[in-house]
Amino acid sequence: MSRDRESNDDAKSDEESSFPDCPRCGEPVLISVALGPHTGSVGPCGCSVPPELFPELRGD
Questions:
Q1: Which residues have C-beta within 8 Å of that of residue 19, sequence separation ≥ 6?
Q2: Which of 18, 23, 37, 48 is 20 to 30 A from 1 (CA-CA)?
């Protein structure tokens, strides 16, 4: 049974993420937070990203 789990995990890792990539580090972005008019952050990577790039992360 553990082999089945391992093969499912391998299949998931081969799939592309449905989350957008961080423009700084390329990791998947799960959350974006505007800290001010010119300051923002994305996570879970924690990179600093200006809020004007958030529409690109959303695909707008």
A1: 28, 29, 30
A2: 18
